Amino acid sequence: MTTPRYPVDSVTSRRHFLSWSGAAVAATALTAAGCSAPSGSAASDKAAANGTAATAARLTKIGLDYPFTQLPLYSTLVKLSTAGAKKHGISLLTTSDASNADTQATNLNTWVARKVPAIVSFPMVFEAAEPIAKAAMDAGLIWVTYGGSLEHQSADIQFSFREGGTLLGRAAAEWAEQNLGGKGKIAFLTDSTIELGRERTKGMIDAFTKLAPGVDVVAREQAIDPDTGLAKTKAILAKHPDLNIVLGVTDASAYGGFKALQQAGRSKDHGKTFVGGQDGSAPSLLAIKQGTFYRASAALAPKDIAGAIVDVPRAVAAGKANPSAEVPIALVQHGDDKEIDALLAQNSQGTS
Amino acid sequence: MTTVDPALGRPRAFSPVGLSVVRRHPLIAVLAAMVLVFQLTTGSFLDPANLSGIATDAATLAIVAVPLALLVISGYLDLSVGSTLALGGLVAGWLAGQGQSPVVAVLGALAAGAAVGAVNGVLCCYLGLSAFIVTLGMLAAVRGFAQQLFPLPLSGFGSGFAWLGGSRIAGIAAPVVVAGLVLLAGALFLALTPAGRHVFAVGVNREAAYLSGINVRRTPFALFVVTGVAAALAGAIKASVLDSAVAGTSGAGFELTVLTAVLLGGVALSGGSGSVLGVLLGVLFLGGLQNGLTLLNVPTFWQQMAQGIALVAGAALAYFAPRTAR
Q: Which of B128, B155, B250 is opposite residue A286, by nearest beta carbon?
């Protein structure tokens, strides 16, 4: 992308500034449009007209619509998916939804109108995505639903978010039985704002309370980020200084809980404390590897997800019978050094 | 004994100092009631450990709220503080992670914050662009810049850097000491320095202030820079406390929280009035409310409702009470 140069007077006036910035914005927008314009829009139109089968032969672009751009996983996925797509001569487009369902709908409608041949979308509101998916299918495009299923779709990439929570809850319950004699106190850091969070929360709480009924549940607090996890756990500790277990719907919130417990005086390897989260984020993985009381994370492998983002649309395009994929979630604990190193290596690919 | 009402310039009837302060800052009464209710219902709200936790959590809010309040009093606004906080935390964490001393790490963060503040200041004060639009744009731009620079979470900053957020000075958590110094500096600046009076003058009537010989650009520009520096310092403290920083989520929504604290504290969004004591009360109110609702184990959505209602009630009281006091 280039930035045009304009003569600037030695004394910058407001009018000069406004005209300069207006021109710069316009030029930047035009340049950006040029950069991202479909190189084969005519071909795409034709493919759409002939239906998905014809699109298959011309799958040159995949649109990845992952709305949670603030998450570290986003940049890792884009990096890995872009590299994976490139191997097959496919370019990867991305949206910038900024966790906003309205923005997501607008961006997806734009892609459908532009006939992006394959769209992989993680709907924030599945009901809202249904008519857009239908429009995409009607236009002969490939629609792959990420993280769930829609009525109108070519295929899906499934994760069992509830299973991730279940794995974590089960591990914590087993630990409580072995180390606390089935007694103690637990706080859950939950999320009830999006489907993914609700599923993880339900899996985590149901599994734990079923397998460790003697452990007292002292709090269920909304927290998905470390700041909130820290503040909430500090408050819980004020009332329950003997809190034993903190389970988080995300690794980020659990990491805040981990820090709150440390700041309350727990040693890093305290034998009667268990913290666990979900995602497989780098700080948590490192804490697990070091043998701290951050003991477990239900982790998704970015490499597997990125592979599915490219391979599922290709499988649909190739007319394969069962193109959908289910990405496994694995629980990593202290001692799983090989798995942790592999996850850390995959995560680090988002940096370069 | 009589006192002079500064607003009216004439003597008024005797009024105990405490009552007068409460009249000017009705949030004191709300805060006291809130503390009483939470203590009676939870039994642990006033425990030293809990109060220490509230103070530590509220410290970063206070550090940013004070300069932001001065900026609002001068008639401007900075909505980019959440992203600046994230950038400051990331820069400090990254430098610490590279083996730099904590001092260098913090100075790096402060420089980043000053740069953001200077851009805001030039655009708003010298080019006359809308502070709302400029800083809203910077909120997005700085966040994107931080995510581009640091797409992955940073962690493991070392024990030296942990001092900033985790150490205690005379038994008080370091972030609380820093917040106390910022509050004191802000109060002294407003009360005792000519520049402090200029802040009010510019906020009340910019043209009149200009005609009085006050540099109506330099003062708010400096406040923009100081606000950026404060946000970055808060980010460095948060990064130290958490021993991690995430570009996408650190400080997300912080701008609204800090602005809420400032407005709750009685600072007029239109500029020209406000006090550091009011800001402190706003910060304590927000921190105490959040903590108390968690102690009560109030379900998530009820917490949100209760917070919203309490904020509106507090703001209404702060708005109406001074009028009735006159």
A: B155
Per-domain boundaries in chain A: 41-153+302-327, 161-300
Q: Which residues of A touch B300 (CB under 8 A)?
A: 190, 192, 221-222
Nearest CA in chain B to A234: B53
CATH topology of domain A161-300: Rossmann fold (3.40.50)
pLDDT digits (tens, 9 = 90+) for A127-172: 889 999 999 999 999 999 998 899 999 999 988 889 999 999 999 9
Contacts of A225 in chain B (CB under 8 A): 246, 249, 252
Tokens of B230: 């404060």
CATH topology of domain A41-153+302-327: Rossmann fold (3.40.50)
DSSP per position, B270-309: TSS---HHHHHHHHHHHHHHHHHHHHTT--HHHHHHHHHH
Q: Is A107 on the interface with B (CB under 8 A)?
A: no
Asked whether the beta carbons of residue B127 and residue A17 sit closer than 8 angstroms, the reply is: yes
- Count of Cβ atoms closer than 10 Å to residue B286 Cβ: 25
Residue of A nearest to B245 (CA): A226
Give the model confidence (pLDDT) of B182-236 as tens digits: 999 999 999 999 999 999 999 999 999 999 999 999 999 999 999 999 999 999 9
Give how far B174 is from chain A: nearest CA, Å. Answer: 13
Q: Is A220 on the interface with B (CB under 8 A)?
A: yes
Contact A75 B238 (CB under 8 A): no
Residue that wins the pLDDT comparison between A98 and A88: A88
What is the value of pTM for the model shown? 0.79
Give me the residue spans of the domains in chain B.
Answer: 60-288
- Taking the CA of residue B323 and the nearest CA in chain A, the distance in Å comes to 36
Q: Mean pLDDT across the stretch A244-256?
A: 96
> B160 — contact with chain A (CB < 8 Å)?
no
Structure token pair of residue B124: 């708003």
Residue-by-residue pLDDT tens, chain B, 326 positions = 344 444 444 444 445 666 677 777 788 888 999 999 999 998 889 998 899 889 998 999 999 999 999 999 999 999 999 999 999 999 999 999 999 999 999 999 999 999 999 999 999 999 999 999 999 999 999 999 999 999 888 988 988 899 998 889 988 999 999 999 999 999 999 999 999 999 999 999 999 999 999 999 999 999 999 999 999 999 999 999 999 998 888 898 899 999 999 988 888 888 888 999 999 999 999 999 989 988 888 887 788 788 788 778 777 776 676 544 33
Strands A329-333 and A294-300: antiparallel
A vs B: CB pairs below 8 A: 111
